[in-house]
Amino acid sequence: FFFFLTDNFAHRTAVRHALANDKDWQGKFISAALPLIEKQHNEIAYLVPWCQLGKPPKEGGVYEWVTFQMKPGGPALWGEAFRAAINAHINTGYTKLISVFHTEYGLLNTVHVIWWNESPDHRAAGRHSAHEDARVVAAVRDSVRFLESQQNVLLVPLQCSPLK
C-alpha cells in the first residue's frame, strides 16, 4: 500500500508534480519499484468528518488496514451505524484508531479504516476479546446489514516509513 495525504486536489496535483520532477525519487524508488508492480489501483478518499487523523501511542507496532465495501446509498444510509461500530471498538481499547477514509473517486461506498496495534498477536487477542464483548457485537450486528464485503490487511512499516 502506498498513499499520500493531501489537503485538497490542488495540493495533490502539486505533490504529484513535485514527485514526477524529483530525480532522487525517480532513481531510488520508482526505477526499483516499477519492475515489481503487477497492477495499480488509484482512488481518492477523504477523512470522514467525525474522525481526526490519529497517531500511534508509541513507535513500532503494526497497522491493520480494513476495507469495507458498503451497500450503495452512501453515509446517509449506513454512516450512523458504521460510526457506532467504529466507536464501539474505540471504546473497548482493544485497538487504536488511526483514521477512517471514505472514497470520493474510485469504487464508491468504500471505507478504509486504519488501526494500530503493538503486534499481530496483540491484534489477534483484541479481535478475540471484541468478538465476546456485547457492546461490540451489538454495534457490529447493526452495521453489517449495510456491508457487502470486508478485507483486512496487516501492514508492517518499513524502517523508511514515517509510520514506523
UniProtKB/TrEMBL annotation:
Gene3D superfamilies the UniProt entry points to: 3.30.70.100
Coiled coil: none
Domain of life: Eukaryota
Gene Ontology CC entries for this record: mitochondrion
SUPFAM superfamilies linked to this entry: Dimeric alpha+beta barrel
PANTHER family according to UniProt: NIPSNAP-RELATED (PTHR21017), PROTEIN NIPSNAP HOMOLOG 3B (PTHR21017:SF19)
Family stated for the protein in its record: Belongs to the NipSnap family.
Stated name of the protein: NPS3A protein
Lineage: Eukaryota, Metazoa, Chordata, Craniata, Vertebrata
